[in-house]
Specification:
6 helices; about 25% strand; homodimer; alpha+beta; 10 strands; ten-stranded mixed sheet
Chain lengths: ~280, ~280
């Protein structure tokens, strides 16, 4: 892991950028050879605007097909007198219609998009009961053929809350911890009849929300009792891939940061946690 | 105008089909050479399923880029023992993801998708005030750079209600009447902050909703007083094309039919109206 640069180099200014994307036609956030990625396109646009090759640090590396309404990144750009208030407008002219900049501001001191973040918030949308999904909703809603009970989903999901090892719900990645603090995992049915899961944690490991949603659905449809999901968590053995829900239903909706004076402390805490011997 | 066939020929069964589409990648409903149209794709799918070349009659011929959540068509298919309850499922397997069948039922006697209809309902969605449209909403919401006042929109729009000549708000088409009965044209702001216009009439002429929306916006943003819109209606001179809103914000949401015993009477009424000397 590269040591994070806490503050920009001399002659550079750190920008905090809030952006949204439709993940449908991206191979995820992270740059990959010969793939269309959000990182590649956003860094190209910024580099073009500031006329300097620019790398970004992202709060939540979303997987292929996952969407975002408020992803956060930071970039360090040369202080060449460009007016920051025009950055969003200018970047949107360079970017394809499936990425949009919501806002660009100068980052406060010690702001680090990834390591200062205290929470990542996601939603997952499902249309259940075998109902026909309206075509315009097909990009960010998953479907399920059986009806789901909100109460059963919530009883199963509430058992997951807290500081826990989510090995059963994370795709294995060498060197990554699977210990996270899940602070919200709650379901409701919206006005249009869609099931919405709100999922909040300090951080998520790879594919974690889609695994948790898939396991909760097993309980929500009555296939397993809620104790099954608690047992899976306890066992720390990865659940079957067949339970995992598709990425298209998943959207990163918010990244939370502490007050400015706590940004530095938060970075130390994040890095300390990751080094801890779990 | 072809005389409508009131009932299917002997050996044929009339189906009422409720379907939805994302109009983004279609050159509208109506078949055109070398263009991708909803009519072409739906008739091909039905013809393939029933193994007989099938024409459809549609309730509302939507323009290029316009969407539908509940469009209604009828088709007469040979009685060859196919089970109607499986039609929707089978057709959806043939169709691209941007057209979906909601339901297929046997039509009641004297049902005609176009001439029995009493109302067409549309919604038009706008994000105003220069706000950044989230990428996943880009397919069915139009944007406007100035803020709009719901009350002003409603005051302007309410003046349009009734049995009137909408020549000022219809693109001219040889031989078409521009007289319609508008029964609802009402605006509200939804939970997400989008402006929604609900527009209901017995029928609409070409581009009418998009013209009406554009004119109402002129009042909603404070450029003109509401009397301006009433004057436009009165003048019967087509408003400037520059006011017309884009098709992507428009969705056909419902087509209303009378009770079964009134279907035949409604057809006579519709055809009588169109022949009347306005």
């Amino acid at each position: 892991m590269t040591e994070p640069t806490l503050n920009p180099e001399s002659g550079f200014c750190r920008l905090k950028i809030d952006l949204a994307y439709d993940g449908t036609n991206f191979a995820g956030w992270a740059k990959q050879p010969d793939q269309r990625t959000v990182q590649e396109e956003i860094e190209s646009a910024i580099s073009r605007l500031v006329r300097n090759k620019t790398d970004s640090i992202v709060a939540g590396r979303t997987d292929a097909g996952v969407h975002a309404t408020h992803q956060i990144i930071h970039v360090d750009v040369p202080e060449i007198g460009l007016e920051i208030e025009n950055f969003g407008y200018l970047l949107n002219r360079f970017l394809a219609a499936d990425i949009r900049i919501n806002s660009v501001v100068e980052a406060p001191p010690n702001f680090h998009a990834r390591f200062s973040a205290v929470n990542r918030q996601y939603i997952y949308k499902i249309l259940d009961g075998g109902l026909q999904l309206p075509p315009l909703q097909r990009f960010d809603v998953a479907t399920w053929f059986r009806p789901l009970e909100v109460e059963a989903l919530n009883l199963a999901s509430a058992q997951m809350l807290g500081y826990r090892d989510f090995a059963a719900f994370c795709k294995f990645r060498e060197g990554s911890t699977t210990i996270r603090t899940l602070t919200k995992f709650q379901w409701h049915r919206d006005q249009s009849g869609y099931l919405i899961a709100e999922v909040v944690a300090d951080a998520f490991c790879y594919s974690m929300v889609r695994n948790l949603v898939g396991a909760a659905v097993c309980v929500g449809e009555g296939r397993y009792p809620k104790e099954w999901m608690a047992q899976m968590l306890e066992n720390k053995v990865r659940i079957s891939d067949s339970y995992v829900f598709p990425s298209r239903g998943l959207t990163l909706t918010s990244v939370d940061y502490p007050p400015n004076e706590e940004l530095l402390g938060r970075i130390s805490l994040t890095l300390g946690k990751r080094d801890a011997d779990f």
